[in-house]
Amino acid sequence: MAISAIQRIASRISKSPALSLTSRTVISRYSASSTSAKVSDRIVKLFAIDPDGQKQEVLGLTGQTLLKALANKGLIEPASHRLEDIEACSAECEVHIAEEWLEKIPPRTHDEKYILTKFSRERELNKHARLGCQVILNHELQGMVVAVPEAKPWDTP
Fold first, then answer.
1. Rounded Cα gap, residues 44 and 133, in angstroms
2. pLDDT digits (tens, 9 = 90+) for 85-97
3. Residue 38 burial class via C-beta count within 10 angstroms: exposed 0-12, middle 13-18, buried 19 and up
4. How far apart are CA 90 and CA 143, in angstroms?
5. φ and ψ at 45, to 5 degrees?
6. pLDDT (tens digit, 9 = 90+) per residue, 40-52?
7. SS3 state at 25
8. What's residue 115's pLDDT?
């Protein structure tokens, strides 16, 4: 009972526009991870299309970022940035979310839009583009399909 009350409060607080993105991320992770006693209850199965067009199953945990799940699978290079810090993002953090899943994830923040536009060659925002470090996994995203785009020429050494 106390846990559900804390989760309701955390949910209300996390929606406050006065909170920083980092604070909202921490609160949503805490509330997502505290709901399940077993790890198996927290597993979220996703599908990723790699740059070669191959569909791969990716396992993540509720409260974990999409980027962390993709890095654990080896689809994104984790050494290229700190896995949850938007200030450390680059185009390598970009993923494309399938159309049917876009409304199940929170809208982009101003910072996320800025980063995605900054690293876009045409300075246009692809509606499917999201930063993997800003998408927090939850059970609603079970079965979500994401595409990991090829590294952009200006990002490769």
1. 16
2. 566 666 678 899 9
3. exposed
4. 26
5. -100, 125
6. 889 999 999 998 9
7. helix
8. 82
